[in-house]
Write a structure and sequence with these properties.
Length: 460
Amino acid sequence: MTATRITKLTADLLGSEVGIEGWVRTARHSKAVSFLDVVDGSNLAGIQVVAQRELDEYDDVVRKLQTGCAVRVHGELVVSQGKGQGYEIQARTVELVGGVGEDYPLQKKRHGFEFLRTIAHLRPRTNTLAAVLRVRHEAAAAIHDFFADEGFLWLHSPIITGADAEGAGEMFRVTALDLEDPPRAEGRIDWSRDFFGREAHLTVSGQLEAEIAALALSRVYTFGPTFRAENSNTARHLAEFWMVEPEVAFLELDGLVDLSERFLKSVLGRLLDRCAEDMAFFDQRIDKGAIERLEHVVASPFERITYTEAVAILEKSGRDFEFPVAWGADLQSEHERYITEEVVKRPVVVTDYPAEIKAFYMYGNDDGKTVRAMDVLVPRIGEIVGGSQREHRLDVLGPRMDALGLDRDEYWWYLDLRRHGSVPHAGFGLGFERLLLFATGMANIRDVIPFPRVPGSAEF
């Protein structure tokens, strides 16, 4: 007797007795036979189990099975007589492992994604969320494999930090103080008496720590959760999300653009290759053309333009954009999508943004107005990767921080890196969930992460 996951059921096992364990997706019962669609999460299709009335447990067990029941089945693997089905199992025994209550909320119908978010403990049992999680797993594996092949080391950057990597202040505070009666000094909260002896926050980025490691190990990347206390309830924002952030010493902007292009093509190509069944599901049920879009990105050379050129394209478009276009204003999603979908019609890398709209750590160009920043824009999503060459010159970085009102003492170690063996270096950040939105065609970022954290909601 062979016990196996559904994905392991192959032609080599035809005629053999096999065992599977999983959950009943649908059950159709007649007087003489029952047809059970059983899934175990290993693939989308599941497998049909045919249980005849001759089974000893037919009346007491099989006939009572319904959607959601957990079962253990043993039987013979045979070629299915059903149209469009490969194999089925002719059951010898069917064991009920776990039943469901009368109020089990998942039935044989399509449920709205908003409703499914209220039952995130059960929604992985749906076809869509199970497919999302399989693609999410494969994308994460592809990311690790890409960087390993490119000679990177994975750096475990801290989740708790005292530094605001973005300088925007949208951070969650971490404290062990009594919030009803915190210690005070001179009328203010005395953070020196907190657990870490100072103010601490959840990180918005692992970049600054990645720079530390890159300036010793040359090529590193971080891949972990990050947090942003931005009160946004849009379909594109999460309070907790995962970031991929490579950092490379002795690398300048052009090399960073090349790296980002190789990275995206490698990861998306892997999804097309290894998640064919799930990608076909997304293409058919969620977003017509999803596969073609990914194939186009993998096959197309990325266009490269400057921010100034992008603004000129938008100003000449004749479009009445919701957000006005002007040099010095950040590009909005509608601008990015117009460029990628209607003008260039392939991924675009925009470089050399105005310094005023970019972070303090970006390398200043000789024009005194722009920095060596880059964003990778793709159809449907807009920006999917953002990065820059870092400012490695101490005599430039210090005054830049002063101008932005950043306390040098808070970043003493970051400045110290510029005093000891500083070199040009660069890196980018990729929002993992943004990548999954693009790959799957899902409309809401809350549906590509197992347990979404958003304003007003931290369930499960």
